[in-house]
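pinned: reference chain
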Amino acid sequence: MTETCDVLIIGGGILGIGLAYSLARRGAENVVLLEKGNPGDGSTGKSAAIIRMHYSNPATVQLALRSRDLFLNWSSEVGGETVYSKTGWVFLVPHDQESNLRENLAMNQSLGVDADLIGPERIAEHAPGINMEGIAYGVYEANSGCADPNATCRGLARYAAEHGVSVLTGRPVDRILTAGDRVIGAEAGGMRYEAGATVLAAGPWSGGLSREIGLDLPLELTREQELILRIPAGERAPALAISNMCDRIYLRPVDETCLLLGRGYPKEYETVDVDSFKQTYDVAFAEDVLQRMGHRFPGLERAEIERGVVGLYTVTPDWHPIVGPVQGRPGLWVATGGSGHSFKIGPALGEMLADLMVNGHCGWIDATIFAPERFQTGRTFNSRYGGNRA
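pinned: its structure tokens
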């Protein structure tokens, strides 16, 4: 059987479902989204889901701020209970990064980010019990925090479905359909979905699907681990999200009794295959991050591991997503390669892509800098802090 639509979206993670939401907001009709499981089941659901603005590329800051504002206004914009916890966020840096921090903070503030430079005394106020050894300054964002990634995707999917988008779950895509160079849709479970525009937003599965039609997107998959820790009795854990450049870890509250702990850049990355990677945490990883956290927060060194979270980053060469139409492949658009940043900027990327598809342009950001061909033209992103700090 064949079903036709104007826009076909492959993937129900934050990029695919964010696009579906924004298309629905713009009154787009005849949109179909295919998701192999349920919205957010893949990489998005494994995200640490820390929401912060502090990036070193203005466009990424714009996206993060626009997405954060959606989270802050979730009930009025999307509807339903909020999925966001405005815990605040602090970025801790060593003395040799003070100049970078000040310059980057000034750029962020010029774009409207509500952030402050804070010293040791205020850092200690926000994070009681912290060991200040080696920490020079911090950036504090009072309105930042963390979100529930699964609830986020469910909420966006619900809104999209209520406003005309066909959100089809349990529909793994078998292949992308082509007619010559033109992409005309996809096949899932023996059903053909033909579309004027097909958007590949399949996260870590994007590379395999694109290679089958001769398109080699520069994507690499890395295995990422985090721990959910139970806070020791009688101890206080930080009540805000923290990105700690000094110890190369990040953490955030999960609830009143647990916190999430992960390992930040620079570190060794483990490249894996999407369908065959270890989905339980490594003992060596756990020992390493617990030691790093125990050094910085001595009262938490007895924290017990409740469970591990293992997911995938879909990484591009410049650690920024690939979003836009594919040159030489009429009918095909891509939204993939979040490189660990997709969740916090995903809603705004969906809005940007929806503007391109509906209006032919995006008036609030230069969308061309995320284009697939940037790796051939050399117009790539850089990071003030290096690597995936973006």
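why pinned: The two ends are 45 Å apart (CA to CA). The CA atoms of residues 94 and 134 lie 6 Å apart.
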